[in-house]
Structures are given as C-alpha cells and as structure tokens.
C-alpha cells in the first residue's frame, strides 16, 4: 500500500497487521508476525524508514488470540494447551528481539484479552458471565509473557519493552459497562454481540444488528466494536503516555 500514498504520510508510521493472522501460522493465508517483520526489514533496507526513524518510533505488538482460535479448531479443545502457550510466547519473544535489533527504541506488547468473555463463548451462559477456563489460559499466557519480556529487558540492560494489560482493561471496561447498565436498563449487555447470525446457511447467512451499535462493546462474536476499543483505550491511555514519554 505504501506505493499508493504520499511519502510524507509514512512519517506517521505503518501498520503491518493482517486480519486473521497470528504469531504462528493460522488458517488465514496472511503473513504471520515473523513475515510482517520481514516486510519492515525490507523497508529499512530500501531506506523507506531509516535507523533514525526506528530509534524515535514505538512498535506495538498485539497478537495471540487467532493462534489460540487455531489451536482450538485443530484440537477441538483448549486442554493440554500449556506446551502450546510456551511455544507461542517463545516465538513472540524472538519476534520482539528482532524488532529491537532493527533499532526500535520503544516496544509495547499487548497481553492477551480474557478469551472467556468473547461472545462466542459467553453465549453458553446466555451472555451473563465470562467462561472461566479460557480466561485461565489467557492469564497463564500473560504471566509467561510478562516474565519473558522482563528477561529480555534484563538481557538488554534497559527497559525498552513494556506490556499493555489488555486483560485487566477488558475486565474493567466490561465491569463498568455492566454497572452502568444496572442504572440504565436500556443499555446493551456488553457481553452480547451487536451483530448476530440468524441463519447458519453458508451461502446466504443472515444477520441482525443491535439498535444502538455505538453503545456496544462487542461488534460480533470475537471483535470489539469501535466503542468497545475506545472504552478499553481509556483504561490504557495512562500506560501508553508513559511509554511514549520514556527515554
């Protein structure tokens, strides 16, 4: 896409993410994170971005959910997932190290959201509560990732890698929206998706959409809405500001 935009706009950064992809290969045909980093490396070699650009930039990693979705689809369950979590965190740590070696001076790594709160799972409780088992998987992933990032910072001798706690931010947002809903009963249940499938036929799926999408937290069964991400951002804003301000 960079060939279709003005070079002046590249100074604001570039998004290498691709929908459906992950840290490892998923069922998507898109590039995994390692390949996305290859793309950045090529741009540096082509002098589209210079070492100076990278030194004054912030890299954001947000991945993992699609990897667990792929694991579940392949295995039918999240049982015996510990070894997979270990391999996933190890690969992500290697990817983060590559970004640092390219010269990026600030790296933010998002922790995994509470997967048990996704509507595709909370539907089992009629959207009343999150499912505990997938949330435990998220917690274990995050704990291992935080430890791995701390080890990387120690090896580097400086704290350039910071974690963004999506897990706590999601839970805090959902909790505050639930409390507001008790005061205003017409507010939408934040665990419920705005868009629902009402006809499962593959060739002609039919959907219904909630009356006020701007008040929803989840857009569909797995993705937060624009409002949902905005609410989460409010909880992350102070952390992001500290990362940007750090030397």
UniProtKB/TrEMBL annotation:
Keywords associated with the record: Hydrolase, Lipid degradation, Lipid metabolism
Top-rank taxon, per record: Eukaryota
Protein's GO biological process: lipid catabolic process
GO molecular function annotation: hydrolase activity, acting on ester bonds
Keyword Lipid metabolism: yes
Pfam families linked to this entry: Lipase_GDSL (PF00657)
InterPro entries associated with the record: GDSL (IPR001087), SGNH_hydro_sf (IPR036514)
Keyword Repressor among UniProt keywords: no
The family this protein is said to belong to: Belongs to the 'GDSL' lipolytic enzyme family.
UniProt protein name: GDSL esterase/lipase
Organism expressing this protein natively: Senna tora
